[in-house]
Amino acid sequence: MNEFEIISRYFSKLSSKNHSALNLNDDVFFDKSKKLVVSVDTYVEGTHFINFRYPELVIKKILRSSISDLICKGVIPKYYFISGSGDKRSFSRKNLKIISKSLKKEQNKYSIFLGGGDTVYSKKLSFTITSVGFSKKIIYRNNAKLHDDIYVTDNLGDSFIGLQVLKKKISLNKDLSNYFIKKYFQPILQVKISKKLISFANTSIDISDGLIADLEKLINKQKLTYKLFLESIPISKNLNKLINLNITKKLTSVSEGDDYQILFTASPSKSRIISKTSKSLGIKISKIGKICAYNQKSEIINEKNKKIALKNKGYYHKF
Amino acid sequence: MNEFEIISRYFSKLSSKNHSALNLNDDVFFDKSKKLVVSVDTYVEGTHFINFRYPELVIKKILRSSISDLICKGVIPKYYFISGSGDKRSFSRKNLKIISKSLKKEQNKYSIFLGGGDTVYSKKLSFTITSVGFSKKIIYRNNAKLHDDIYVTDNLGDSFIGLQVLKKKISLNKDLSNYFIKKYFQPILQVKISKKLISFANTSIDISDGLIADLEKLINKQKLTYKLFLESIPISKNLNKLINLNITKKLTSVSEGDDYQILFTASPSKSRIISKTSKSLGIKISKIGKICAYNQKSEIINEKNKKIALKNKGYYHKF
User: Fold this and answer.
1) N or C, which end of chain A is more exposed by having fewer CB within 10 Å?
2) What is the CATH number of domain A149-308?
């Protein structure tokens, strides 16, 4: 059973439909009457981050991953709670100082502050982050319309290469290594676009599990399919280099997640305002596909106009 | 370093004083402008609960422990988020069914619902619960006044005996065992008194670490001391039996925590309204001591009017 099955089978009935809250199929909780948006995520060493050798980077990464859930829904995060379980070594004075400093930097960068938290003793290191924001509206999941265009912000795939470098599965020169590792640990969150998003996006999600996996999650309760154009999926020049050198494949790299870019759909009539927004904010927004009718099959089309199959759709937390 | 030192040394500066939020020395986070109250707690197997042999009871216990943080501040909990880390055995289909059923029962009992959560794979079982409520006002910590009376709701100490029975450190007959184990797993939360509390309590806390430890926490930033009268501390008839049989000592039992009763201070002028509230709600509220001047020493007075010393002040999460 993966976590989606767990949620729908055992816990959906525990949420309330009377309080305008989202059902548990969404990534954030929304109390419309209170305008409150909450996201809760747990990060375990070995699963969500490799190890705690660089506490500063791990803390940055997981905090960004958490607030990304709000940002992609058009909500500006206001504060967060962090609860750490770990042993004396993980929470040594030196590490605590580093953690505190790292959080401070992120707070300044994203104008958020620490609401509270908890530190408990455990042999296994993990963090739970609760992010809170306020908004009258949010962009829901499963709200794509037939013939919507599919968009994504910035570039995808760099983060995956960074992880492969860290895992020593890919070896690159120092400059390239540093470039990709930085992309892995410090994904760029599209805060500026967040508030604009509500005016044109029908549905949205952040890419944490991989482009394909998250696109499928985005419309998993809808009778819709998608067509993606591989050529249109935006990647960095550096990633393009690796693809040309046959070090990685494009579809693989963008399907592995950890990008924290925003994936959304919008009516073709919004095409102009989206490219205007992209220019005015200086944020790359690429049209990468279409939402299609249910009687078609979801497909990915390569540069030769051929359908391609995907082996691994991305990351699912399995039990 | 215990968790209080960690919080004050490394994380206090990360919270905001501009947003009317409490500083991290308090048990809950309060955003006055949004009337939002949040409590985050992590519960680790082996530290906060013995094991997961009875998932139903563990889930009830930790959920009550979490919402108790709001209730003792005069805030009615509205929803909660639960994030579980564990292995396949802990989150087997059978256990998930039990967990879901147990949460459902608690939801009905306390009129709360599940806002969301996360399930992740980890070798070590732990849960993080975020509880949320809304209130214009809350009762702060460190707001006792000189000469305040000290009060506590219901009885203390039963939960500790239940834990000793579970750990096989005390052996009792079946009826008594069941009585104390139930008190350990299913503490009675004083929801009814919660909203009234704001009209008479100056400062409050729930007893999770033990009467003395929590009383000291309650006024740890104030230049005040306390005098407690051992005889006035309320205990059950069953606990009294064990004391008479020399199986446990009164001060020990009430100092070990897990009671989730409300400890508060109030001006002597509120004495009448408190006893009226107690009668009208049918909830026992006992006056157990006084808040005293800083030039005195905090002390506990026994039935023979003698000062007594305490070896173990309660439970601190140590690192």
Assistant:
1) N
2) 3.90.650.10
- Among B11, B100, B130, beta carbon nearest to A100: B11
Q: What 3-state class would DSSP assign to A120?
A: strand
Evaluate the CA torsion angle A212, A218, A221, A224 in order and state its sign.
negative
The rounded distance, in Å, linking the Cα atoms of B234 and B249 is: 13
Structure tokens at A270: 């919004």
B126 - beta bridge partners? B44, B85
Of B13, B41, B96, the CB nearest to A6: B96
What are the beta bridge partners of residue A264? A151, A204
List CB contacts (< 8 A) between A41 and chain B.
Answer: 83, 118
pLDDT in tens, A66-120: 999 999 999 999 999 999 999 999 999 999 999 999 999 999 999 999 998 778 8
Could B85 and A29 be called an inter-chain contact, meaning their C-beta atoms sit closer than 8 Å? no
Q: Do domains A3-134 and A149-308 have the same CATH topology?
A: no
- Shortest CA gap A63–chain B (Å): 14
| β strands within A154-210, DSSP E | 203-206
Residue with tokens 């409300």: B262
Q: What is the DSSP letter of B97?
A: H
Nearest-angstrom CA–CA distance, A7 and A197: 28
Closest CA to B90 of B134, B132, B122: B122
Alpha-carbon distance A65 to nearest alpha carbon in chain B (angstroms): 14
Burial B112-145 (b: 16+ CB within 10 A, else e): bbbbbbbbbbbebbbbbbbbbbbbeebbbbbbbe
CA distance A218 to A73: 12
Residue labelled with tokens 């039963």: B158
Q: Do B118 and A40 touch (CB under 8 A)?
A: yes
Encode pLDDT of B196-246 as tens digits. 999 999 999 999 999 999 999 999 999 999 999 999 999 999 999 999 999
Nearest to A121 among B47, B107, B134 (CB): B47
Write down the CATH number for the domain with range A3-134.
Answer: 3.30.1330.10
Asked if A10 lies within 8 A of B100 by C-beta distance, the reply is yes
> What dihedral angle (degrees, nearest 10) is formed by the CA atoms of B9, B10, B12, B14?
160
Q: What is the pLDDT of residues B237-282, one digit of tens each?
A: 999 999 999 999 999 999 998 999 999 999 999 999 999 999 999 9
Chain B residues in contact with A124 (beta carbon < 8 A):
85, 122-124, 126
Name the nearest CA neighbour of A154 among A10, A305, A282, A44: A282
Tell me the shortest Cα–Cα distance from A18 to chain B, in angstroms. 10
What's the gap between Cα A38 and its chain centre? Answer: 15
CA nearest to A124, candidates B119, B121, B96, B316: B121
Q: Are A9 and A105 in contact (CB under 8 A)?
A: no
Domain range list for chain B: 3-134, 149-308
Measured between alpha carbons, how far is A127 from A87 in angstroms, rounded to an integer? 12
What's the complex ipTM? 0.86
Contacts of A124 (CB under 8 A, 6+ apart): A44, A45, A85, A86, B85, B122, B123, B124, B126
Chain A residue closest in CA terms to B122:
A44
Q: Which residue of B has its CA nearest to A131?
A: B130
Q: For testing the chain B interface, which of A13, A14, A16, A108 should be mutated: the one with the most B CBs within 10 Å?
A: A14
